[in-house]
């Protein structure tokens, strides 16, 4: 089940608990690769690795956002930017 945050988003938070990969976050909230899983380490594209529980800056301070690299539901949509739409 792929979830897309569209222009019709009212920033209600209903999508966040529906994401099976914990890839959706509330604006202003830091995220982690582990995000409620047992993941301990992540290898980055440059070959380096980080602790999966390391807090990462939020993509948006105001709106819900999707971390696309955590999303496995969006097959074919692996990109390096996050789609953000405001209402």
- Secondary-structure-derived class: little secondary structure
Number of domains as seen in the coordinates: 1
List low-confidence stretches. Answer: 75-87
How are strands sequenced across the largest beta sheet? 1-4
Largest sheet: 2 strands, antiparallel
The N- to C-terminal Cα distance equals: 23 Å
Taken as a percent bin, the fraction of beta residues is 5-15%
Q: What is the overall pLDDT average?
A: 77
Computed over alpha carbons, the radius of gyration is 13 Å
Provide the helix percentage.
Answer: under 10%
Notable traits:
little secondary structure, two-stranded antiparallel sheet, 87 residues, single chain, disordered C terminus
Short description:
The protein is low in regular secondary structure.
């Amino acid at each position: 089940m792929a979830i897309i945050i569209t222009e019709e988003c009212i920033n209600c938070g209903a999508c966040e608990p529906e994401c099976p990969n914990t890839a959706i976050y509330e604006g202003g909230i830091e995220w982690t690769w582990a995000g409620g899983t047992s993941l301990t380490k992540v290898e980055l594209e440059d070959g380096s690795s980080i602790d999966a529980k390391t807090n990462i800056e939020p993509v948006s301070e105001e709106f819900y956002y999707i971390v696309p690299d955590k999303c496995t539901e969006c097959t074919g949509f692996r990109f390096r930017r996050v789609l953000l739409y405001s209402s």
